Amino acid sequence: MTNGTSPDLLNEWDRNHQIHPWAAMDAWQESDYHPIESAEGIYLWDADGKRYIDGPGGMWCVNIGYGRKDMAAAIAEQVIRLPYTSPWTTTTDPSTILAKKIADLAPGDLNNVFFTTGGSTAVDTALRTMHFMNNALGRPDKKIVIAREKGYHGSTYLASTVTGKERDKSRFDVEKRLVRFLPDVNPYKRPDGMSVEDWCDAKVADLEDMIAEVGPDKIGAFIAEPILCSGGVIIPPEGYHKRTLEICRKHDILYISDEVVTAFGRLGHWFASEDVFGIVPDIITCAKGLTSGYLPLGACIISDSVMERMTGPDENVLFSNGYTYSAHPVCCVAALKNIEIMEEERILEHTRAITPHFQSRLHALEKFPIVGDLRGMGLLGCIEGRPDTPGTSLAAERKLGALLDEACDKRGLLVRPLINMAVFSPPLIITEAQVDEMFVLLEDALEEVTAQMASD
Ligand code: PMP
């Protein structure tokens, strides 16, 4: 594929011509990105032949692991048979069968599937659905979205508008009048001496207060990730999900559960909303694990009751939301094969079985004084640096993510650094021995970072 182009020249082309997502603009055209050449299972190999464990599983997405020849065969067959057809007036078996399959797996009356190109476009579709429904119901003012600090929902204009991570919109414009943010729900950030139960009451009260302040007739939706993953694997206190859903129902506010990370196995279930947190939302967005990252695809799953409120007697009203690649047949085949592999190889059962070992190895890192909090669920984990580690400077503590990233990289482990945190979501097929391999490298890296921080 590279036609013998030298690594140095490729690097030059990459710097000069490719705009990478989340590029650091102060180092524009200076950063070197790590060229990865191949992958198998939970491992990646770079251009020098060095092997890495993929700690973040791509971007929380490579659930069945890399290098599946059966995925390649299914995808190739569909490319040869029918690579594309317009979603205007035609349909294909893969998209029809996938829609039925997702409807069967999704909770409650979430039976209606709109295919998108990824997570951001699924979130965009969910929010536009809320606009459409409220316009159809003759309540055009009921459009404000309640979202949460540290929430991440994507990079389109609307999805970034409801994203609560400041860094992600520092120089971009967003539609501020469309959204209100609730403060951090992270139990780790609760005041000293406050119980988790009281924290939950306070967080639920934040939502109630916001609704009272803005007015329920102005609020169209509440959007929430079951676990705020990109915000640092923040797990809201127990009972929070059910109580916030009840409040939304009381005020006829749509509850959008953004399961872009948590659906398709990350917590050992197809969907976390119902099976893990006991709620049936009005809309679920998903992507990532739907195809295990083999091809881009997302879905916005809408309940029957919302659909009923969107359809009416008016003629010539189109649901004018669509993409050239909506319901792309090759991507739908990749999703179907991915789900088939997960079913045949009992990957959800495996995830549930391996979770206690993964979580106990994660929590064993508390022996490192530089670690402030360890949290996780299923095959999701986060290490957060201690804010007041004795003998360390604030600057170094802020860099914990970067230092850990560097130390892990040297040892052949990729992690995802986030300021003073590092997050993990390895492929779900990881074995117990591989979990150990990963944590041996991590502990070794933490030793090095501890020494570095002490001498900083
Ligand atoms: N929602 C959540 C919860 C996500 O984690 C992400 C991506 N990290 C998105 C939406 C956006 O998905 P995509 O990058 O596929 O557009």
What average pLDDT do the residues reach? Answer: 94
Separate helix tally: 15
For CATH, the homologous superfamily of the largest domain is named as: Type I PLP-dependent aspartate aminotransferase-like (Major domain)
Tally of distinct domains: 2
**Structural class by helix and strand composition:** alpha/beta
Spell out the key features of this protein.
4-stranded mixed β-sheet, binds 4'-deoxy-4'-aminopyridoxal-5'-phosphate, globular, 15 strands, single chain, Aspartate Aminotransferase, domain 1, 2 domains, Aspartate Aminotransferase, domain 2, alpha/beta, 456 residues
Describe the structure.
This protein has 456 residues and is α/β, with parallel strands linked by helices. It has two domains: 34-67 and 346-455, Aspartate Aminotransferase, domain 1, CATH 3.90.1150.10; 70-345, Type I PLP-dependent aspartate aminotransferase-like (Major domain) (Aspartate Aminotransferase, domain 2). The chain is built from 15 helices and 15 strands. It has a seven-stranded mixed β-sheet, with helices on both faces. Strands 1-2-3-13 form a four-stranded mixed β-sheet. A four-stranded antiparallel β-sheet has the order 11-12-15-14, with helices on one face. The mean pLDDT is 94. The site of 4'-deoxy-4'-aminopyridoxal-5'-phosphate (PMP) has 15 residues, from helix 5. 4'-deoxy-4'-aminopyridoxal-5'-phosphate (PMP) binds at residues 59, 118-120, 123, 152-154, 225, 229-230, 258, 260-261, 287. Belongs to the class-III pyridoxal-phosphate-dependent aminotransferase family.
